[in-house]
């Protein structure tokens, strides 16, 4: 029997694969509950689940020195499907060069040519199979049902300033502007739970336990033999005859390893935890995407802000979605966007753009009262590094998350260049023709110093934490290329 921890984006896939064929008995533990909240399945519902403690861990960072000492929200899914049940749905693979870089660092089997067959195998691409995509797989990948006028204007503006148009960010060339695809089918979210776990739930050799908070991994010496977890206020255990698989994400995987005695010895002893393995890299190397957001007032009442302020338009949107699975309720986080280079000599894009047909004040479910939309940008490969460390031996206590945004000056340089690129796009006639004004940061934000201050004061996460269980052949890596601790 094998034990899996966390029924999230990775855990659901592993549970389905390991239980297929009936050879292994699999127990899957999930701290959250079942995905019965209807807003999980409605694409636009991510705007609600992002602030719902019933399905979201609602983590936040420590005060970030590079962001005016602000604490930055870090939502994580606390429900079957994990963050794939509450995220913005966008289906975007990494750049092929990124996977090849992993391989070249000494991780065989992780180059783009190695992982592409698995992308294709998992995919049910609405456009059909080709050299880059698969059809008939469990994970639905779909297109926006209808174009949006703000997205059309953005794409035209991007092309006019020299960014190529692309129909497929996951095809031969990721660079360009266009519409995003999403993990959705017929107007409904296709989370990892829907795609992978639901078809496997009736297998006799798969047991899924919800509302089961893993508290530590059990060891015989240095070999994992099971998991302790808390359910209904009781401490319980599940033992593994073969192996324990930890798939709790970039924040809670290192947290559980540290709670279990694998991590920096000094930290573990400080909290009275017996050291199984002194691994300073557990929880180190934390990285995240930081975004800068333009709030733009629109000349025409064509944004979600307008739809949500009109009872008639809200009723029409609800009926359109109920009958045809179209309209605003079927939208995902960014309808359009792109990947671009801030300097022409770069060999690949270094920033990502995201166009959202609504506007809010920072991260807030309440829409602005004016007709508005948002254009955001993030640096794709930040150089700054942070860490995650447990605060105590209490497994229910949130960890201390310190991302150290903008600690490396190269990150701020790219963010400034990215803001200038957004300004170039918004000034292009195709988009400028529908913009009444730039509400934030506003035209007074003109110099590099002004832009840097804007990024520090208003920058927020894109919620893409990675790196805390670093893979590599080195002795200090957390996992080897076969993902063994």
Note down, in words, how this protein is organized:
This protein has helices at residues 9-19, 38-41, 46-49, 96-104, 112-122, 149-160, 192-200, 249-259, 265-270, 304-309, 311-324, 409-427, 429-432, 448-458, and strands spanning 2-5, 26-29, 59-60, 73-74, 123-125, 139-141, 176-179, 184-185, 188-189, 206-209, 213-220, 223-231, 234-239, 244-246, 262-263, 277-278, 284-286, 290-298, 336-340, 351-356, 372-379, 386-389, 400-402, 435-440, 460-461. It is α+β, with helices and mostly antiparallel strands. The chain folds into three domains: 1-63 and 74-91 and 190-247, FAD/NAD(P)-binding domain; 92-140, Arc Repressor Mutant (Orthogonal Bundle), CATH 1.10.1220; 145-179 and 281-466, 2-Layer Sandwich (Glucose Oxidase, domain 3), CATH 3.30.560. Strands 7, 18, 19, 20, 21, 24 and 25 form a seven-stranded antiparallel β-sheet that branches. A four-stranded parallel β-sheet has the order 10-2-1-14, with helices on one face. Strand 12 and strand 13 form a beta hairpin.
By CATH, the superfamily of the largest domain comes out as Glucose Oxidase, domain 3
- First-last Cα distance: 19 Å
The CATH class of the largest domain turns out to be: Alpha Beta
Shape: globular
What would CATH call the architecture of the largest domain?
2-Layer Sandwich
Question: Taking all residues together, what is the mean pLDDT?
Answer: 96
């Amino acid at each position: 029997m094998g034990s899996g921890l966390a029924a999230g984006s990775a855990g659901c896939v592993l549970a389905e694969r390991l239980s297929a064929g009936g050879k292994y008995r699999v127990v899957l533990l999930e701290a959250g509950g079942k995905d019965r909240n209807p807003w999980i399945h409605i694409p636009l519902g991510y705007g609600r689940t992002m602030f719902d403690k019933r399905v979201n861990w609602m983590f936040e960072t420590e005060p970030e020195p590079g962001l005016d000492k602000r604490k930055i929200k870090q939502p994580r899914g606390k429900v079957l499907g994990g963050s794939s049940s509450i995220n913005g749905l966008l289906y975007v693979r990494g750049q092929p060069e990124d996977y090849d870089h992993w391989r070249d660092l000494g991780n065989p089997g992780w180059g783009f040519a190695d992982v592409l067959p698995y992308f294709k195998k998992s995919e049910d691409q609405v456009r059909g199979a080709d050299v880059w995509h698969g059809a008939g797989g469990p994970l639905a990948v779909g297109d926006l049902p209808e174009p949006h006028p703000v997205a059309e204007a953005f794409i035209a503006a991007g092309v006019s300033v020299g960014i190529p148009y692309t129909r497929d960010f996951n095809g031969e060339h990721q660079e360009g502007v266009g519409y995003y695809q999403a993990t959705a089918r017929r107007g409904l979210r296709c989370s990892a739970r829907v795609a992978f776990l639901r078809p496997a739930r009736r297998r006799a050799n798969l047991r899924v336990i919800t509302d089961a908070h893993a508290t530590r991994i059990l060891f015989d010496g240095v070999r994992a033999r099971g998991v302790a977890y808390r359910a209904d206020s009781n401490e319980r255990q599940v033992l593994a005859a073969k192996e324990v698989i930890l798939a709790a994400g970039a924040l809670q995987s290192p947290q559980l390893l540290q709670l279990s005695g694998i991590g920096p010895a000094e930290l573990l002893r400080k909290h009275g935890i017996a050291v199984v393995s002194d691994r300073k890299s557990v929880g180190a190397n934390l990285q995240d995407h930081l975004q800068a957001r333009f709030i733009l007032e629109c000349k025409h009442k064509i944004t979600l802000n307008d739809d949500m302020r009109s009872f008639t338009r809200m009723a029409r949107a609800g009926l359109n979605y109920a009958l045809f699975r179209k309209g605003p309720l079927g939208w995902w986080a960014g309808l359009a966007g792109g990947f671009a280079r801030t300097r022409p000599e770069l060999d690949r894009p270094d920033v990502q753009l995201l166009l959202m047909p609504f506007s809010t004040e920072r991260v807030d479910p309440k829409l602005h009262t004016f007709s508005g939309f948002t254009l955001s940008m993030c640096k794709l490969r930040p150089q700054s590094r942070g860490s995650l460390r447990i605060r105590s031996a209490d497994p229910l206590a949130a960890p201390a998350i310190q991302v150290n945004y903008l600690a490396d000056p190269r990150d701020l340089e790219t963010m400034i260049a990215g803001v200038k690129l957004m300004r170039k796009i918004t000034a292009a006639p195709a988009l400028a023709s529908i913009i009444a004004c730039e509400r934030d940061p506003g035209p007074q934000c003109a110099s590099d110093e002004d832009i840097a201050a804007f990024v520090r004061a208003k920058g927020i996460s894109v919620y893409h934490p990675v790196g805390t269980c670093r893979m590599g052949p080195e002795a200090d890596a957390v996992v080897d290329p076969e993902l063994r601790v």
